[in-house]
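Lab notebook, bench 4. The sequencing result for the construct came back, and we need a structural model before the next group meeting so we can plan mutations. Quick request posted to the team channel:

Model the 3D structure of this chain.
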Amino acid sequence: MKIKKIDIGIKTLEENLNDFSKTWKKLQAGEKVKKEERVYFDSIDSMRSILTNNRLLILKTISERNPKSVYELAKLLKRDLKNVNQDLNLLSEIGLVVLEKHKTDKERVVPYVGYDKILLEIPVKLNYPSSL
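Done. Here's the predicted structure in token form:
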């Protein structure tokens, strides 16, 4: 079985803008650009505020249990539907979850995780606060 992965890392805003600029120039020149599954945060603190234990448990539960709706996911997690929905929307915004609408007897939103592994990359050359 092929393992699909998503990379998560720390990059400054300047580094992200520089990468975007390079990619844009390649596209303008007609060059092919490799699509990569990556999510970057500007600091460890911002990453921690998004990737909480509850949200990581959501990713794990979706991957292992394949719930057929957000309601079913909330039941599996034994959490309030509203809170699970908020977490899912945030995870969807940053690209860690796909939310697909399905019409059966009623409209349902089905959460998907399209990878098996998250790889975390933390560069040591960033200017971290001295409190770390």
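The beta strands are 5-10, 38-41, 98-103, 107-112, 117-121.
Will bring this to the meeting.
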